[in-house]
Give the backbone structure.
Amino acid sequence: MSFSSIRWFHFAAPQTFYGLAGSVWKWFAVLAAGLGLAGLWIGFAVAPTDFQQGDGYRIIFVHVPASWMSMVIYLAMAFWSVLGLTFNTRLSGMMTRALAPTGALFAFLSLWTGALWGKPMWGAWWVWDARLTSELILFFLYLGYLALTSAIDDDRRADRAGALIAIVGAINVPIIYFSVTWWNTLHQGASVSMTKAPSMAHTMLWGMLLMALAFWCYTLALVLYRVRTLILQREAHTDWVCALPEVQAKGEGA
Amino acid sequence: MRWESWAEFWAMGGYAVYVWGSVGATALMMVFEIVQAWLARRKLLTQLRAEQTLAEMSAEEWQA
């Protein structure tokens, strides 16, 4: 099947996507749990103690995946926003809205776990360093998006206003990513890069990658679950929603 | 396996506060987010069902 022969707009219809997301989110939830357990086992039971940072380095197993997700989710929001503004598809706005809370959560966790790592290693909870400051700006962008979209009552208008924040703010993501090479910072450089061999022991790397995959699956499961609620909300009085078993008065849908 | 005992595991080589503060906050916020998403869906479904029952009742009254 070629790229163009897939009926993209068919799947972008809220009604179709509601069913699709309903069957897919559970699989991602199961994957997230499995990968998370494996990642925690490798990270906290198998991986050796670091020769410089002792066992304090184990914060990496939540810090790096959370930071990656905070950036990936913002890019995904920008992607859906471009689609929404270009094709005016209803689903785009809902996807962007469903992504934002999880992105904000990961941006916060990135800062929180970073502070808890910075204190024992650098002697400070916080420094105004390029990496930390740009991640803080990312967190504020998420909060700005959430505040703006919830302040506008008309959903489609809120989507369009939010799309602008998502697209303009996306410029911050490469700044965060490259901040450690562009400026002299206290923050260490990338642990994993596409051009160099990773600068860590194999078990540490595997633990981190498994946790990153688990966070990916967690995000996909939760966002697909949340977008279904948004679809129901916006399509509340349509025939197809009224006919759903979970909406039928005696239905017991989960 | 890297640890000799549970006590040693929980102590994290003296970094317990920092390591468990990170892992704990992450787990807590994820659980909170999951519960929040679940409650939001449940609340909406309850509301939609109530509206549907109301609509059916008024339709029956209309016919009678």
In short: Chain A has a mean pLDDT of 90.
